[in-house]
Design goal:
- The protein folds into three domains: about 40 residues; about 210 residues, P-loop containing nucleotide triphosphate hydrolases (Rossmann fold, 3-Layer(aba) Sandwich), CATH 3.40.50.300; about 170 residues, Ribosomal Protein S5, domain 2 (2-Layer Sandwich), CATH 3.30.230.
- It contains twelve helices and 23 strands.
- Helices cover about 25% and strands about 25% of the residues.
- The protein is globular and about 75 Å long.
- It has about 450 residues and is an alpha/beta fold.
- It binds thymidine-5'-diphosphate and magnesium ion (MG).
- Thymidine-5'-diphosphate binds next to helix 3 and helix 4.
Length: about 450
């Protein structure tokens, strides 16, 4: 590629192409490729010497307390134990899911804890943000508000005000006058994020960038932002449900896969400290098609109800509908049930749902999924005091999963008395729980539902 030839970038995945085309080869998105100005390369002169420090000197360099608590436990947990100074955090989520609400509440909470905090909105005026704060009962929090989209002005503001935390809502509205592209385009978002992240590292300011997500779940354009920042959090949930889950998908300063659970109420988001009780609260008496999965989200056990419905299908190709789980996983489990246990699903629609709008990604949910489907198909309820967990292998064997003891303790705490687990699980001390270990799916089907 010659130095000044134009560059074509996919606004969905950030892939760079030599020429324009209607479809991106990398992510298969249509009509997503845009032309960008080529990167100008300056004269090949030697640069100045960069600053280096010795690893062993680090401890003395950083005397300030490394983490600031937000005062919101669920948020601190997802951040890996509080906000790290000079870190960059991306909070992504669908429009309207509650990102601005969450971050305004976080800003207020940080400010009350003595962290100087600047909230810059590119979408609302300062007065509108103040109105929202009033509705949330936060009007007395010493948060500085700004309404600005020009990044040059924002950097100057940050430089003068010197906050410890700056929240930029949202990165898609920010623009740099040195980049010839519309706000929200890949080049603007990339350049703006780069400027902010560099500023954060150099000046010791923590920045939180808000990013809107497109329909297919990618933050619009900025896959490119994900690798620039230290922490990527997604704020997710079903619009119809009141529960919202803040999920860490990347964290340089703590465990990823950690979740924080919130409830959207009339006065903002309330944290939910005991999500298991909440996800199971709508559960009535034992019904066919319902199974309770003892799962682990990050470092915390969370119990969820898996619901299934199996009904004769009027269609040639029966339906497989899944909410809150991976549909590929359902196909695999159905195939194992057919091939290894001889239970046919041809001509039957299968619907699967995780109650409460929760999303389960652990393979340990396999056994609970199989149990819910079988229970629905045979119209036999699983005993109500039972939890299940275990991964199903393609041979039909059940494989032990991690943190068995934590799962059992959480289940016991919530009043369950029996667990069905794979053989060779490391049970540890699980008081009050009767653990029935099963080597494979065929044994499970035989014991729970007769011969199958
Ligand atoms: P918002 O934070 O503006 O979403 P985002 O920044 O992710 O686009 O949230 C807007 C939604 O939250 C809106 O549908 C109304 C709802 N909401 C409440 O239910 N209660 C409240 O107290 C607030 C402030 C918002
Ligand atoms: Mg918003």
């Amino acid at each position: 590629m010659s130095k000044n030839s134009p560059v074509f970038t996919c606004s969905q995945c950030g892939a760079v192409h030599r020429k324009w085309s209607g479809k991106c080869d990398a992510c298969n998105a249509w009509n997503s490729i845009v032309e960008e100005a080529p990167l100008s390369t300056g004269p090949k002169a030697l640069g100045g010497k960069g600053k280096t420090i010795l690893l062993t000197d680090l401890a003395t360099e950083e005397d300030a307390p490394p983490r600031a608590s937000s005062g919101i436990d669920e948020l601190d947990r997802v951040l890996g134990g509080g906000l790290v100074a000079a870190s960059a955090i991306l909070v992504g989520g669908d429009p309207g899911i509650g990102k601005s609400t969450l971050l305004l509440q976080a800003a207020a909470s940080f400010a009350m804890n003595g962290v100087k905090c600047l909230y810059i909105s590119g979408e609302e005026s300062a007065a509108q943000v103040r109105m929202r704060a009033q509705r949330l009962g936060l009007q007395h929090a010493p948060v500085m508000l700004g309404a600005e989209t020009n990044l040059r002005d924002i950097l100057t503001t940050l430089d003068t005000e010197r906050p410890r935390l700056a929240i930029i809502d949202s990165i898609q509205t920010m623009w740099l006058d040195t980049v010839e592209a519309a706000p929200g385009s890949v080049s603007q978002v990339r350049a703006a994020a780069h400027e902010l992240v560099t500023f954060a590292k150099r000046r010791g300011v923590a920045v939180i960038l808000v990013g809107h997500v497109t329909k297919d779940g990618q933050i619009a354009g900025p896959r490119v932002v994900e690798h620039m920042v230290d922490t990527v959090l997604y704020f997710e949930g079903e619009r119809g449900h009141q529960f919202r889950i803040l999920r860490a998908v990347k964290n340089r300063f703590g465990p990823s896969d950690e979740i924080g659970v919130f409830e959207m109420t009339g006065n903002g988001l309330q944290q939910v400290l005991n999500p298991s009780a909440l996800f199971l609260s709508e559960r009535g008496t034992a019904n066919p098609g319902s199974a309770v999965f003892a799962g682990i989200e990050g470092t915390r056990p969370v119990l969820t109800e898996i619901q299934a419905l199996v009904a004769p299908s009027p269609l040639g190709t029966p339906r497989r509908t899944v909410v809150g789980l991976d549909s590929g996983r359902l196909s695999t489990i159905l195939a194992v049930l057919e091939a290894r246990c001889g239970i046919p699903f041809a001509g039957l629609d299968v619907f699967l749902n995780v109650a409460g709008g929760m999303r389960v990604t652990e393979p340990a949910a396999d056994l609970a999924v199989a149990a819910a489907i079988l229970s629905a198909r045979e119209d036999v309820a699983i005993p109500p005091e039972t939890v299940l967990f275990g991964e199903i292998s393609l041979s039909g064997a059940l494989r032990p999963v991690g943190q068995t003891e934590n799962r059992l303790k959480e289940a016991a705490k919530l009043g369950f008395s029996q667990a069905i687990a794979p053989s060779r699980s490391k049970i540890g001390s699980a008081e009050g729980m009767k653990v029935r270990e099963m080597p494979d799916l065929t044994t499970f089907v035989g014991e729970m539902f007769g011969a199958g």
